[in-house]
Every structure is written in C-alpha cells, then in structure tokens.
Design goal:
This protein is mostly helical. It is built from 7 helices and no strands. Helix 2 crosses helix 4 and helix 2 crosses helix 6. The protein starts with a helix and ends with a helix.
Length: 147
C-alpha cells in the first residue's frame, strides 16, 4: 500500500494532477450528473450499454472513475490508481470511438467525430502521474509519510 501512495514533493506532479483533475471533472460530471450538457447517469449508462455494448460494470466504472477520480486527483488521493484507470479509459475511448476520426479534434465541424489527440494528452499526463505519484501537497504523500 505504501508503494502505491509514496511520492516525492515535486511541483510538477502537483500541477499535472490538479490540471488533469480539473479537465476530467466536467467529463465525469456530464456522465454522472448531467452537468455541462451531459445526459446524466441513466442516459450515459444507457448509451454505454445499449449503443456501445459495454458491460454494465465497465460503463459504471468509467462514469464513477471520471467523476470521483478527478476529485481524487485534485486532492492527490489515490493518484496512481486513478492515473492507471484513466490510461485504460482513454485507450478504450480511442479504440472504440475516436480512432476512425483520425488524430485531430473536430475544431471545424467537418469531421464525423472527434479525433484522439485529447486522449493521448490524458494518457501522457496519467503515465507521468503513475510513475511519479501525486507530488507536493497530496493526500497520498501525507498517508505514506504516516505508514
């Protein structure tokens, strides 16, 4: 457990985890709460299970992981666990949805959907956090220090 929580006191990890948490929070809030134009928990579960044919447990974990994982990242709680989860979620999103649309986001509205450049950034940030941990002012660091 201590290995999962240990971290250095790097400012870079603090910046990475807080920014990633702030970016992922609206995505989780769309899926869980229906905020920011999202469909909420029921709508998202229906879409994931009926349209995308994901098992219900996977759909549930994606929704919960994006919302509560983002809050955990901001606080620096279970940073490595959330980072690993985000890598898996983003690889799944690329493979199941975004790969056919190419690399670039749909800035001009001329593509059939969004590309995967955003997902690669999330993967890169998550991998850095997976390696380094939560950094300065993380709950993980405080817990590890007491273990």
């Amino acid at each position: 457990m201590k290995t999962l929580l240990e971290t250095d006191k790097a400012w870079s990890s603090l910046v990475l985890r807080v920014m990633l948490g702030l970016v992922m929070f609206p995505h989780g809030a769309q899926k869980m709460l229906g905020w920011y134009g999202g469909f909420g928990f029921g709508g998202t579960m229906g879409f994931f299970t009926e349209q995308m044919h994901l098992p219900a447990v996977i759909a549930f974990l994606v929704i919960v992981g994006e919302l509560f994982g983002s809050l955990g990242l901001i606080a620096g709680f279970l940073t490595r666990f959330t980072a690993a989860s985000y890598v898996i979620i983003m690889l799944g999103a690329i493979a199941m949805v975004h790969w056919p649309n190419g690399f670039f986001m749909n800035w001009s509205g001329k593509q059939p959907g969004e590309g995967f450049e955003y997902h690669l950034l999330v993967i890169g940030m998550s991998l850095a956090l997976l390696i380094a941990g939560g950094g300065k002012w993380s709950v993980d660091g405080a817990i590890a220090k007491k273990l």
